[in-house]
Amino acid sequence: MTIKEIAQRANVSLGTVDRVLHKRGKVSRKTKERILAILEEVDYKPNVYARGLALNKSFVVAALVPDSEEGEYWEVPSLGIKRAVKNLGQFGIKVNFFYFDQNNVESFIERTAEVLELEPDGVILAPVINFEATKFCFKLKAKEIPFTIIDSKIHGDNYLSFIGQDSFQSGRLAAKLLVSSVPKQGKIFIISIKNNENHNRTLQQRIEGFKDFMLSASNQDLLLEEINVDQRNSDWKINLEKICSRKNIDGIYVPSSKVHFVAEIIFNKKLSIKLVGNDLINNNFKYLESGIIDYVIGQRPENQGYMALENFYKFLVAKQEISKNVFLPLDIITKENLMYYKPQIELS
Amino acid sequence: MTIKEIAQRANVSLGTVDRVLHKRGKVSRKTKERILAILEEVDYKPNVYARGLALNKSFVVAALVPDSEEGEYWEVPSLGIKRAVKNLGQFGIKVNFFYFDQNNVESFIERTAEVLELEPDGVILAPVINFEATKFCFKLKAKEIPFTIIDSKIHGDNYLSFIGQDSFQSGRLAAKLLVSSVPKQGKIFIISIKNNENHNRTLQQRIEGFKDFMLSASNQDLLLEEINVDQRNSDWKINLEKICSRKNIDGIYVPSSKVHFVAEIIFNKKLSIKLVGNDLINNNFKYLESGIIDYVIGQRPENQGYMALENFYKFLVAKQEISKNVFLPLDIITKENLMYYKPQIELS
DNA sequence: TTGTAAGCGTTATCAG
DNA sequence: CTGATAACGCTTACAA
């Protein structure tokens, strides 16, 4: 049913129908109600093609994400955004990437300034630099630029949508997997590998979740130790080796994608330790394949990127409702199912 | 860059450009090459809105899937298809559902006849009735109706695309999970619960995969027994109870969504048996939540349905390339991550 | 307050 | 072989 047909039914011109559809201009109460009734009755749905053609405009979304080498974690959400551009670009959604160094607060601040200058129609934000990201969100709010947060939540709820993971539950899940793989009186290490001072909320919440599970799994009598390794020390690898070589370790949890560093040591030293970590990046893939890493927990980073842009398509172009909070599933990945988790990205 | 602009550059009318774009009508070699060169140079991409508006046609896809009660497995792929209709319907994709009784070959044959009569632009087929489904595929091929197979593969490769699971690997994964949860010399049962005579390939392949893993995990000394339960016997539940109550069972694998029947028995009789099955249907959900079922393996049935229709959108409407085979990940679902696997379907 | 008409980019038809 | 033109359904500016 087209506007024209509706106009005929209502004995008005299509201009009048348009006015009630868009609530612009004045329409007499009587005709307005008549048209509304017909609209309701025929369940009018505008033709997206005609609408898109007539409007003929496009939107720019800024993606503010960490830069990354090939095979690193943050490469993946970006690939998801790029795949979305490939699918949705034809509908008038464009993306500008702004890459910052996640170990350099200054670079983040510089990029945020650039984004504000661009005045995009939307922003996709990876809030890894927590404090500054929160400040940036206030500025976006002030400029009335809608933004979507990916990966992990930050303080405040003035965002358009959040797409990411539940880090606490991720830690609980890791604990479940590790606890059920080690002896009842085993010794478990949590090893955090970091190379900056930032308060990393994701890491912190995973560790809290891990401990939470350990406390509730009281039928076991496990020994738990928490260890930090600082990559800025030149001898951090030797240090890590020493830690892993201690006697009687049954399991190790690395609450980040850096679990492959531990895997490498376990492999080289032929240690027999159950190992659980996060994220199916290439370096972890090979150790999963060989069984050195027992489980990796994934949170569909490629999907996160894709959905973030898709949400802007829905919001800006299709004027659809979107979910404010999307927690993607925590995938348990192990040797036997990893082959189907590799994101199939073929960007030509 | 529009056709009009290209026509200007080439000193021809836009009708001529259109002819070379669509390879229809005759165009002199010289002008054709000139236009082609410009098209290449400016990387011409047609405006999807204008195209959709001008073509103004819509496509009908027939979905041939098992009927189901609420909470049963086959409800979910249908919900995925419906969600896709909600998103893609506006672009001119319509779906007609044809539900058959998966325990009644006749009903399947009747539905296939109805589908052929409709002459749809595409078919989504759940090939649970293997033999007849294969025959139907030949008929579709003869009528040149493209079809997508969901869930599990059947013989032949004349389909447009397949979207489903690797059942063999699903069985291997189940074995891995069960083996790592039971004692080294434990006793494991595979219990198949069926209510028809059909040769169910999915079930068979899962069992084969399970055994394959058991053979390769030779460091354990496990006892394996394979048991069939026929739901057409009036006393099948009592029978199942007896089986589960045998002495010294450490683990049970039910290679289907019917694992909740075993869970119910384990719960009622307070047995201590590790339990692994398939599919996050409601009945399994509650037993996972309480920890009676240890792991369920899922294959994203909602996604399967969604992607099947999305593929037809890509193929019929957007004229995009589509993957011939999509194996969706085998998700490991357990108490600690199940809350994020529930498909969030709100069909208003 | 209401009607009219141009224009969005593509497709398809018809006349030259 | 080529050019001109109507049509698709909607938006928007302008005229009545």
Automatic annotation (TrEMBL), chains A, B:
- Please name the GO terms that the record assigns under molecular function: DNA binding
Tagged with keyword Transcription: yes
Gene3D superfamilies, A to Z:
3.40.50.2300, lambda repressor-like DNA-binding domains
Q: Could you confirm whether the keyword Transcription regulation appears in this record? A: yes
Q: Which PROSITE patterns match?
A: HTH_LACI_1, HTH_LACI_2
A Pfam match is Peripla_BP_4
Keyword annotations for this protein?
DNA-binding, Transcription, Transcription regulation
Q: Where is the HTH lacI-type domain?
A: 1-55
Per its UniProt record, what InterPro entries does this chain match? Answer: HTH_LacI, Lambda_DNA-bd_dom_sf, Peripla_BP_I, SBP_2_dom
Q: What name goes with this protein? A: LacI family DNA-binding transcriptional regulator
Please tell me the species this chain comes from. Answer: Autumnicola tepida
